[in-house]
């Protein structure tokens, strides 16, 4: 498949994946965004800035280079494009990035508190606690650098950027969307658990076993 076909397919894939953000209640208004790296190219497909979720389509998606410069599209790219681009430049294994302000995960980010690994599902999906990244302002590479620096020391595909919200990564855009859905789900469940006491952390050896099994054996 040549680059033009890859871009065409990814425009549709990325547009469709934005529907998962609304389906799972992860976004309001025009907040949130999904991007995908174009395999073998220094390009990514990302949501345009400020467009209603109902109006997103393959045609409205935007293509930029990995410095966030517009390559193809009629609309301006998402205001988070620089953060996505930084992640792709520094994490070659990442093929998809998602950002939301999903309410429970963002509540943990507001407190600057990692989500502790107190459920088998957290061990499965995140390989430990969901870490907190630094406070960073939009406008330069600060957010991207904070994401990369935090995820480099973790098995988690999700980082809670302090006082902001979750960013997730995956081998492709669908995996990054799955991580965004899962981080909101565990953020909510552990929040509930905290209302009635302090949940027990799973010991590190069990976390390793769970993570290993789920990542390498589980599924079809
Ligand atoms: Zn944001």
UniProtKB/TrEMBL annotation:
Enumerate the catalysed reactions.
L-ribulose 5-phosphate = D-xylulose 5-phosphate
Task: Classify the source by domain of life.
Answer: Bacteria
Query: Which keywords label this protein?
Result: Metal-binding, Zinc
Is DNA damage among the key words of this record?
Answer: no
* Pfam families listed in its UniProt record: Aldolase_II (PF00596)
Q: Which cofactor does it need?
A: Zn(2+)
- List the SMART domains: Aldolase_II
Q: Which InterPro entries match?
A: Aldolase_class_II_sugar_metab, Aldolase_II/adducin_N, Aldolase_II/adducin_N_sf
Listed EC numbers? 5.1.3.4
Q: Which family does it belong to?
A: Belongs to the aldolase class II family. AraD/FucA subfamily.
Please state what the protein is called. Answer: L-ribulose-5-phosphate 4-epimerase
Native source organism of the sequence: Streptomyces badius
